[in-house]
Amino acid sequence: MNAVLRIFSILLLSFFASFQSFAKPMPSAFSELIAKSDLIAIVDVFEISARGKSMPASASARVIERISGAAEKDTITLHWEGIAIYELGQWVVFLKKEDEAYRATYGARSFWKIEQAIIDNAECCSAFVVLRPPIDSLRIDPSLVSSYPVYMNDVPEKSRPLMTKGVSISNLKNYIKNTIKKDK
Question: What is the rounded CA–CA span in Å between residue 32 and residue 139?
Fold first, then answer.
């Protein structure tokens, strides 16, 4: 009986180990996400089609500003698996070109929700990306990250603004452009 259990354990272990070797590794460095993307842009998502946590999903968005790469149209279709874009509004997106549409470069790490923050004691508000999961697991240059009072739609009014860590959109755009120049 012990021999059968031991063989079963070895087979089970090798079965799970085989999945590990075929898994597509997620980037841990922000610079890798930039380098692997065909299009980096600020978009306004106006339609989301999602069916569930592990299901394919898509969104339609207007390109507001192209940071890197070429968007062939003013309106693009975005595709991903699972939960990534969860509400309408402005997003920074990191995309790979796929036929007539675009796919997330690296899953949910490819979509960064834009919030509004008080930056440099200015009157409200400046565009800001909150570093929340899963993008907070990327290695981002610490000089980009700051804490700001942020006005987030899903935070109750009496708790606004909320102090949180993130990156200002102007600093993010400059960093992306400088990273791309270095890589060329």
Answer: 10
Element (H, E) at 174: helix 169-183
Q: Are 46 and 88 in contact (CB under 8 A)?
A: yes
Using one digit for the tens of pLDDT, what is the confidence trace for 143-162?
A: 999 887 777 667 777 777 77
Query: Which pTM value belongs to this model?
Result: 0.79
Evaluate the omega torsion of the peptide bond into residue 161 and state whether it is cis, within 30 degrees of 0.
yes
So what's the pLDDT on residue 15? 46
Do the Cβ atoms of 62 and 74 come closer than 8 Å?
yes
Domain boundaries, the chain: 30-112, 114-183
Second CATH level (architecture) for the domain 30-112? Beta Barrel (2.40)
Beta pairing class for 89-98 and 39-50: antiparallel
Q: Do residues 113 and 89 lie in contact, with contact meaning Cβ atoms separated by under 8 Å?
A: yes
pLDDT band for position 27 (cuts 50, 70, 90) = low
Tokens of 122: 């200015």
Helix, strand or coil for residue 172? helix
